[in-house]
Specification:
about 40% helix, elongated, seven-stranded mixed sheet, about 325 residues, 2 domains, single chain, Helicase, Ruva Protein, domain 3, disordered N terminus, alpha/beta, two-stranded antiparallel ribbon
Length: about 325
């Protein structure tokens, strides 16, 4: 045995050794997906992609130090995406960090519903809005995957909107290739369609709205430390029942969407159709145009705003998002 090597690196000098050790420690700390996280951390420290990790052999002392620095943070439950500085979403990679919500795989299915609707429309009608945009994951996915589309990414939080703009700039080439355009609108999702606000001029012209708003009740504490301690609170919590922002989204969508336009809105798995008025589908079905909304949305007072409402499940069979079509 080479005692010098064993003394300085703990006997772990190959990628395989370091990987096994990292997985073991992540498992012991209760970190979800420890094998994936270990591979991502080591690949990042070595400056290679994860699928190229098997081609590596020895780990240098400097690389080992870098792995340990990253592992220390991950073991304290700093999100993996914050360590890497990126998050994958559908066909794109987004820059993320403190101050912006990390996009989840569940939302990929949500945006798919909006993309399918938009693709079927004539080019002149491919106008979409992403409410509560955050990193810009939804807006950019629509713009890149639906050619000749015009998308508006609405975000209120000052820190989050900086990430929205950063990701938009990073994907300018892909958007240009799709002949699409994404504009960032720094405004409140609940007010952006009102007179004097950023999208008032689009009232009655939008074909598709997709939203992943905050929907956690104020008194509920997320179990995962990555969410509880590192995600921005403004992207998580929305009033006593978690539906304050959802109510604003339903109102804004009623104003912006053209007759027959589609709203796709993500929600918690306890806010599906079975939740009644404590769920998104129930809220949408109960919304009737009062004096103000009827005026802004150009519909008759007393009209049911969302006559067609369907709740959809995610790939795990859990209620995940509501699809609602505006009255015509």
């Amino acid at each position: 045995m080479n005692w010098d090597v064993d003394h300085t690196t703990g006997g772990r000098t190959t990628v395989r050794d370091v990987l096994i050790d990292a997985e073991r420690r992540l498992v012991a700390a209760g970190v979800p997906s420890p094998n994936v996280d270990a591979a991502e951390i080591i690949a990042f420290a070595l400056g290679v992609r994860r699928n190229r990790l098997i081609l590596q052999d020895l780990v240098t002392p400097a690389q080992r130090v870098r792995v340990e620095q990253l592992m220390t943070k991950r073991l304290s439950r700093v999100p993996l995406q914050h360590l890497l500085g990126t998050a994958a979403f559908r066909h794109i990679e987004l820059q993320v960090g403190p101050g912006v919500f990390i996009p989840r795989p569940e939302t990929e299915l949500v945006v798919e519903a909006g993309i399918r609707e938009l693709r079927e429309l004539p080019v002149s009608e491919r106008i979409a809005v992403d409410l509560c945009s955050g990193s810009g994951a939804i807006a950019l996915s629509i713009g890149i995957e639906v050619e000749n589309s015009r998308v508006y990414a609405v975000e209120l939080d000052d820190e989050a909107v900086r990430w929205t703009r950063r990701n938009l700039a990073a994907h300018e080439v892909a958007l240009a290739a799709a002949c699409s355009r994404v504009d960032v609108v720094h405004d409140d999702a609940a007010l952006v369609a009102d007179p004097g606000h950023g999208l008032a001029r689009l009232a009655g012209q939008v074909s598709v709205i997709v939203a992943n708003p905050p929907y956690i009740p104020a008194r509920m504490v997320p179990r995962e430390p990555e969410v509880r301690d590192h995600e921005p609170k403004v992207a998580l919590f929305a009033g006593e029942d978690g539906l304050d922002v959802v109510r604003g989204v339903l109102r804004t969508a009623a104003i912006l969407l053209k007759p027959g336009g589609l709203l796709v809105i993500e929600h918690a798995d306890v806010q599906g159709a079975d939740a009644g008025l404590l769920g998104v589908a129930g809220l949408a079905q109960s919304l009737v145009a009062g004096d103000e909304l009827a005026l802004l949305a150009k519909m008759s007072i007393g009209t049911r705003v969302w006559p067609e409402v369907i709740d959809r499940k995610d790939l795990n069979g859990l209620p995940r998002f509501t699809i609602a079509r505006r009255s015509s």
